[in-house]
Write a structure and sequence with these properties.
- This protein has about 220 residues and is of the alpha/beta class.
- The chain folds into two domains: about 1-120, 3-Layer(aba) Sandwich (Rossmann fold), CATH 3.40.50; about 130-224, Alpha-Beta Complex (putative n-type atp pyrophosphatase, domain 2).
- Helix content is about 30%, strand content about 30%.
- It contains six helices and nine strands, in the order βαβαβαβαβαβαβββ.
- Strand 8 and strand 9 form a beta hairpin.
Amino acid sequence: MDKLKAISSWSGGKDSCLACYRAMQQGYDIKLLLNFISRESRRGCFHGIEGRLLKFQAGLIGIPLVQKEVSPDMNKYESEFKAAVTELRGKDIGSMVFGDIYLLEHESWIERVCGDLSINAVEPLWDNPVESIIDEFINSGFKAVIISCKADVMGKEFLGRYIDKGLVKELKKRDICPCGEKGEFHTLVVDGPIFSKPIKIVEAEPVIKEGFWKHWFLDIKQYA
């Protein structure tokens, strides 16, 4: 196995994007992006982004995106994750990149599962100060918009807003993690140094959704 040949876990949001970008700068050859989508909704499991939009995004980045369907039963997620990585890695891919920052339960799960798979877990953002991560994201030329947020933490007026220094100041005043690491909000990256052109959101509307918690979601209906 070549440890520099890697799969990058992909949500379409800022943290997975910056982690992938950092890994590329560190010499990793990202062979593909791996994204899990709901079998029922055909949307990303954790960010809710439509599968077709994620494919469009990956096309602008120029790295193949592989989408794997998973069941709504989270108890099956680990086995489905392992099966997908095992199928895709082949004989030469030795690493997988993740965008975790400071949640120990996430990092511990990844280390354990990757250990079971005998694949090297790469965490380029791990234990970095959140302010430095978001500053690097902005200063590197990436652009992302908020596509969902917890309704009891942030209002629908945050939907569609770009991640910029003004927004970061506002989030810090409200005592919200600037990276949204605890799920306060999620983003869609629409431009950056690895994009061939920006994604233009043409039509979208806010909707309220119920789940583990109530959250606002930006339903992107048309893009180019």
